[in-house]
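Amino acids appear as letters; backbone shape is given numerically. Here is one record.
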Amino acid sequence: MDAYDNLLKCWERDTIGHLQLSANSLVHNTGISEAEINQYDAENFNRYFAEKTVAAPQNEKINVFTHTIQKDVEKYSEQIKLCYEEFKHYM
């Protein structure tokens, strides 16, 4: 994003920064590093996700891993919507 600092308004940089933070949080909480993520196809990722879900702390209502990932996906989705709304006038 630094390469675009001169082209973007402050609020545009903030919007993109929030999207980037939510994406980073989601990636971090999956437990897969950026270097490893390309090694996963859908089947391998599903297997990994199932294993992480089973191994995660949980009680009768909440699995910590799936709860965290669900919240991260919701935040990321909301940030995508905000980015769309902020930048749609450029289309």
